[in-house]
Recover the amino acids of this structure.
């Protein structure tokens, strides 16, 4: 296939806005393990669909005749669109590309798409034939080699990828730090290959000085692999070689996240204080991600000092981060700190929502804080923050168990008045509580009212009531018998 790419025309390029444009376009548009086709996109133009139909459905020997019969003159833009949808039929795409080149000289982007298509389909001999044709036409760019790096690395051909870097100069492309970073990124994208990338970096760093992006790629690789020791070494070298610069925040974030993932939060906090002094403190995104990890690990011990470092540095937390911290503290039964965070929210212009209040309310209930739970319930209702149905039911049970039935009844009244649904669980907790305290007349009154409102009284609740009331007195048995008749009538 090699010489089929050589159309012997002088270079008429579609110039990129920067040397990075085409690598980025290729990376964002067509990377992936599955190849897009014209059937996978929501809309393609009629001409694109006709050409793609030919590419995918016509035998290779007949493609050129079919294309000629289509009556379509392929513009450079149309060629690009068709190539992006032809990764699943590479040999036919080559025939199309050759045919299209007879009408119009393909754009630089189309050439790079062709190289990428061949690489993604493991057609490396044809890929290099295309590159030689591009060299003859003066069409090679950094994007061409970035694509080759990625294709080789996906196939585990790392030595071939590094060989490609070594021959760039012979093809007229000066290897610079952008090329180095592109190769490092391609290697590090593959599983457990950061050490290989680092060895290449170690070999090339004296010839081509690294920049902040170089270290960010390596540090993100160590983060992905969870190698705290190597991350520390790489970070130290970064500080020596490129110094401190807030533009290198991606590298700092990766290093700090490696420490957090590696359960070295104390170390991360120490580095944060150093970074603050250098004017390189990460933003809310890092702290949110780090706190999210600690929340998942249920590690409030380290989360609180990390939070204090964040707010002490002037970074304004939002409602999501506040709720995450309050939820973590509640999970660890740290009610005092949860209240501290609740009280501090208005200082940062953040206002508690229903989730905030209900997490604390649930914690108070779980820890059987009777007085505090009663007071907090009244604060919630005063602030028009509704407690959840589950919290209301749990609170009623806890309050009756802990000898504050009046507040339990108050919560039930709130449930009815504010139509907290479903009310069944709350109702059954109330009846069980009244029964345990021997308040049978109230039990009967509340139960009749519940049945009138078609609130379900569980069969298990009725069995418990029967057991208790039948052990008490004749009048108690009469109350149960009357209630049972009414209960059965309600379900017939």
């Amino acid at each position: 296939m090699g010489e089929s790419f050589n159309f012997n025309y002088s270079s008429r390029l579609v110039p990129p806005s920067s040397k990075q444009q085409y690598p980025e376009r290729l990376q964002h548009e067509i990377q992936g393990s599955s190849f897009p086709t014209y059937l996978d996109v929501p809309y393609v133009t009629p001409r694109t669909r006709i050409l793609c139909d030919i590419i995918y459905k016509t035998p290779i020997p007949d493609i050129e005749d079919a294309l000629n019969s289509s009556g379509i003159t392929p513009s450079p833009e149309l060629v690009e669109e068709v190539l992006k949808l032809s990764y699943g039929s590479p040999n036919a795409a080559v025939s199309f590309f050759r045919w299209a080149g007879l009408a119009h000289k393909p754009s630089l982007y189309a050439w790079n798409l062709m190289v990428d298509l061949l690489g993604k389909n493991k057609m490396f001999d044809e890929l290099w034939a295309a590159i030689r044709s591009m060299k003859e036409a003066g069409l090679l760019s950094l994007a061409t080699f970035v694509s080759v790096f990625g294709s080789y690395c996906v196939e585990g051909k790392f030595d071939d990828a590094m060989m490609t870097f070594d021959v760039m100069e012979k093809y007229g492309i000066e290897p610079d730090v952008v090329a180095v970073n592109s190769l490092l990124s391609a290697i590090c994208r593959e599983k457990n290959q950061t050490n290989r990338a680092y060895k290449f970096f170690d070999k090339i760093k004296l010839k081509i000085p690294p920049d902040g992006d170089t270290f960010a790629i390596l540090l993100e690789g160590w983060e992905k692999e969870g190698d705290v020791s190597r991350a520390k070494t790489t970070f130290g070298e970064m500080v020596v070689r490129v110094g401190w610069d807030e533009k290198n925040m991606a590298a700092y974030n990766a290093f700090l996240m490696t420490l957090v993932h590696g359960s070295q939060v104390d170390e991360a906090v120490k580095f944060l204080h150093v970074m603050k002094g250098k004017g390189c403190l990460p933003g809310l995104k890092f702290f949110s991600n780090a706190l999210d990890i600690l929340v998942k690990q249920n590690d409030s011990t380290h989360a609180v000092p990390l939070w204090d470092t964040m707010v002490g540095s002037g970074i304004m937390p939002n409602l999501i981060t506040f709720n995450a911290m309050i939820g973590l503290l509640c999970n660890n039964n740290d009610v005092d700190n949860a209240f501290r965070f609740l009280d501090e929210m208005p200082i940062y212009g953040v206002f508690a929502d229903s989730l905030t209040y209900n997490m604390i309310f649930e914690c108070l209930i779980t820890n059987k804080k009777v007085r505090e739970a009663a007071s907090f319930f009244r604060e919630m209702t005063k602030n028009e923050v509704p407690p959840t149905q589950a919290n209301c039911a749990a609170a009623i049970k806890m309050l009756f168990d802990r000898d504050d039935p009046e507040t339990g009844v108050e919560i039930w009244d709130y449930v009815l008045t504010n139509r907290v649904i479903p009310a069944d669980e709350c109702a059954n907790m109330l009846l069980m509580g009244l029964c345990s305290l021997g308040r049978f007349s109230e039990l009967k009154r509340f139960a009749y009212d519940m049945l009138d409102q078609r609130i379900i009284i569980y069969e298990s609740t009725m069995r418990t009531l029967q057991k208790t009331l039948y052990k008490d007195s004749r009048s108690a048995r009469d109350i149960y018998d009357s209630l049972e008749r009414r209960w059965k009538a309600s379900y017939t």
